[in-house]
UniProtKB/TrEMBL annotation:
The keyword Manganese does not apply. Pfam families: TIM (PF00121). It comes from the Bacteria. Belongs to the triosephosphate isomerase family. GO terms for biological process: gluconeogenesis; glyceraldehyde-3-phosphate biosynthetic process; glycerol catabolic process; glycolytic process. This is Triosephosphate isomerase. Pathway: Carbohydrate degradation; glycolysis; D-glyceraldehyde 3-phosphate from glycerone phosphate: step 1/1; Carbohydrate biosynthesis; gluconeogenesis. Its EC number is 5.3.1.1. It catalyses: D-glyceraldehyde 3-phosphate = dihydroxyacetone phosphate. Homodimer. The keyword Isomerase applies.
Length: 245
């Protein structure tokens, strides 16, 4: 089902005490915000603890940043969907940092999407072109590959995150018009029931511009999600814009 969403990707940041404080603050403040689904994707070592913290009032969901596609076996260092399915509702799949640093291919991403869905996790499928001059077709192709062998009826359990690689971790988000064009194109393939998010250097100053577009269902927030105040403001802005439309 399409719905407004704000997703925090903490990447490989936060020590135990940071994760505790951040998750507790977000949980407490999100309690007063309606109309947006908030998801925290902490590092896997904190998944259990963050899940326990946010479970208390049930308004924040938890996502993993990655899974392996096998259920169990001799895969040192990996995490299976079975291990996290009772803790997390979502899992990021195909984030550009995984594709770049860990060599994840479109085939790996597809296997992970299949495994996530099989075990009741909703994959947040990250796609995006590598350079500013690259055509949007690159992201479209990644989505096609990620959805291979997935029956269309299961698309509603997927979330797509359009994250142009050149806009991630920088100081400036991609231009809204370009994002809207890309999302409209991705929508043709994923169908009308799945949320499509934008990710790439979103902060509390520019998020309002994105929230105004009826095409963009939510945002995936990296660096700015590590500052509780900024992240909460993003959630509030998103909820207000979507609720009062
Ligand atoms: C991300 O890692 O998915 C992301 C969007 O990061 P940032 O907001 O820091 O660009």
């Amino acid at each position: 089902m399409r719905r407004p969403m704000v997703v925090a990707n903490w990447k490989m940041y936060t020590r135990a005490s940071d994760a505790y404080v951040l998750a507790t603050t977000i949980r407490n403040q999100v309690a007063a915000i309606d109309g947006v689904e908030v998801v925290i994707c902490p590092p896997s070592v904190w998944l259990s603890e963050v899940s326990d913290i946010v479970k208390k009032d049930g308004k924040v969901n938890v996502g993993a940043q990655n899974i392996f596609y096998e259920e169990e076996g001799p895969y040192t260092g990996e995490i299976s969907p079975i291990m996290i399915r009772d803790i997390a509702k979502y899992v990021l799949v195909g984030h550009s940092e995984r594709r770049f640093h860990f060599g994840e291919s479109d085939i790996d991403v597809n296997e992970k999407v299949i495994a996530a869905l099989k075990h009741g996790l909703s994959p947040i499928i990250c796609v995006g072109e590598k350079s500013k001059s690259a055509p949007i077709g690159e992201a479209v192709e990644q989505l096609t590959e990620a959805l291979r062998h997935i029956p269309k009826k299961n698309y509603q359990n997927c979330v797509v995150a359009y994250e142009p690689v050149w806009a991630i971790g920088g100081v400036e988000a991609a231009p809204v018009e370009r994002v809207v064009r890309a999302i409209a194109r991705l929508r043709e393939d994923i169908g009308r029931d799945s949320p499509i998010l934008y990710g790439g250097s979103i902060n509390n100053k520019d998020v309002g511009e994105f929230a105004k577009s009826p095409h963009i269902d939510g945002v995936l927030v990296g660096s700015a999600s590590l500052r509780a105040g900024v992240f909460i403001e993003i959630c509030k802005i998103w909820a207000e814009a979507k609720t009062f439309k």
